[in-house]
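Sequence and structure are no longer studied apart. To make this concrete, we show below a single chain and its fold as tokens.
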Amino acid sequence: GNLAPRRDFTYVTDTADGFVRAATAEGVAGEAINLGSGKSVSIAELLQTILRMIGKPVKVTGDPARVRPAKSEVDNLVADNRKAAALLGWRPRTGMEEGLGRTIEWVARHPGLFKPECYAV
């Protein structure tokens, strides 16, 4: 796919914490609240970080079947988490590399759950 788009990644426990805070906070019913880091990283940068962290050489090749049509791609998705901070007292606590490290360890402990040879949407 396209490695240029930028995305805002938030570790699952931080997202879950935000959900719990939103569900239990007074006066926030109906509010749209973004739970994100407030920073974006390109898919290429994310890939390079993961490859560095796993320490294994991996050949990356493009697959035209995985590239979205030009008018459907969003170049940069980044959350504005100021409302989450103000209404919920929420901020992400897990940095991207820490979250990736935890994820890499989890995947390594559960290899049977994945089929890397299959492309599934």
About this structure: Strands lie at 6-7, 41-42. Residues 21 and 28 are 10 Å apart (CA to CA). The chain is about 40% helix and 5% strand. The two ends are 12 Å apart (CA to CA).
